[in-house]
Amino acid sequence: MNEERNNGALPRSEDSQEYLTFTLGDEEYGIDILKVQEIRGYDAVTKIANSPTFIKGVINMRGVIVPIIDMRLKFNLGQVEYDAFTVVIILNIAGRVLGIVVDGVSDVIALSREQVRPAPEFGAVLDTDYIDGLATLDERMIIMVDIERLMTSSEMGLVEQSQLTA
Q1: Which helix or strand (DSSP H or E) is residue 73 part of?
Q2: Measuring CA to CA, which residue among 72, 42, 71 is closest to residue 59?
Q3: What's the domain count of the chain?
Q4: Among 9, 23, 63, 89, which residue has the least CB neighbours within 10 Å?
Q5: Domain residue limits at 54
Q6: pTM for the complete prediction?
Q7: Can you tell me which residues the record assigns to a coiled coil (predicted)?
Q8: Share in percent of the chain as helix, strand, coil (round to 5)
Q9: Residue 6 lies in a domain
Q10: Does residue 7 lie within any of the structural domains?
């Protein structure tokens, strides 16, 4: 049953893709829903010495050690107080399980390719390598993030580069 969504997104079809949207501060971001394994509340993490500031630490999730990345820190959006709405999105990327901390999860939307516009070029001022584009949905502007490209980048150091070419 293909039911129409009230939030303005297209119903799922052959030329559309589903995204999980989440908030960081006042901005809304979208990532490919197929990369999402689960969503859970933020819980205490075990800190790892000498890790980059955006890596909060690790959690043990059913026997799997999962690195937790704070997306506010990664995107230089400043510190945030973790509250009841703070969540961790567990991702499965390049065969590796990892989590990202976000302010809150909005919803799941289906967008056609035509609804996603290319990100503007900012030159060296802003790194847009991980931004797939911008989508407008009703009055909302959603920044579409290529989460796999971001999480497998060498600067993140979360996935061995040799795993990507295998």
Answers
A1: helix 71-74
A2: 42
A3: 1
A4: 63
A5: 16-165
A6: 0.83
A7: none
A8: 10, 45, 45
A9: no
A10: no
